[in-house]
């Protein structure tokens, strides 16, 4: 239990709760859930430019990272087809992957196929079920993909001014504006309470909020004087109590709760809002192909990690279909913007290609 680990090392409740947020981020879990300590480890392992455990903003927004990868691939001769939905993986008579068929009927032939789609989409939608072992299919179907995350993107006409650290008179960003700001995280009890509400099908009445203002470091993201605010919030269940849908009314009611909370810390925030974009778990699934809206393609619980990710005997990036590899967050070592699964899968695929 993460709670026990934090109690052992720290006395300050706000500090413990702040650390606990990285143990539950993206997970339908509380700091008191067994195995939550690993999720914290997952978020602090590694380094950025030589600084251990550090995170950073991508200049130009997260899309710039995708573009950088695309440019690097194109420089090596890769052909990129954007906005082309894959219909299914092409299989030879021997069951070997031979490419992909696109929704418009185009067939792209290849010796190997690497999928960074989720295991659910890769194996349950793009491959005929009769081509896969029954126990493997069952395992993929049983992966826990519950997601507590609702992402809210906000455009504001001025920086939030927090009661704890009011803005400077010139309106320039202060150091705390350039960091992750955690709200409703004064105690681990608050996080557990928010989690409990969601397990009963109700969006948290006092949700955990991680607030970032990337435009303070990257002014090109917003017009002069304005800013973009990224709100990573939880807990929101994928399915609301009583089977109610996440319609516009439910979306806006939850977003209003989040904004009311921010207003308590930074009076005037609501008046500064120009527009907002609300992405609930079903929206994240529909738009980005995240199963259940889960940002990791499946929970990062101990039963779904290491040799069991995405399934026992298939943690080495190869799949039951020869020539088909899994290289996304659903593969070992899991989620996060680090590229480890992709790099590892590429090495395995290249090794097999040389053998072929």
From TrEMBL:
InterPro entries, sorted: Amino_oxidase (IPR002937), FAD/NAD-bd_sf (IPR036188)
GO cellular component, as recorded: mitochondrial matrix
Protein family membership: Belongs to the carotenoid/retinoid oxidoreductase family.
GO MF terms, alphabetically ordered: oxidoreductase activity
Keywords, in A-Z order: FAD, Flavoprotein
Species this chain originates from: Halcyon senegalensis
Signal sequence bounds: none
Keyword Magnesium: no
Residues of the Amine oxidase domain: 35-162
Cross-referenced Gene3D superfamilies: FAD/NAD(P)-binding domain
Protein name (record): Pyridine nucleotide-disulfide oxidoreductase domain-containing protein 2
Assembly and binders: Interacts with COX5B; this interaction may contribute to localize PYROXD2 to the inner face of the inner mitochondrial membrane.
Subcellular location: Mitochondrion matrix
The protein's role, per its UniProt record: Probable oxidoreductase that may play a role as regulator of mitochondrial function.
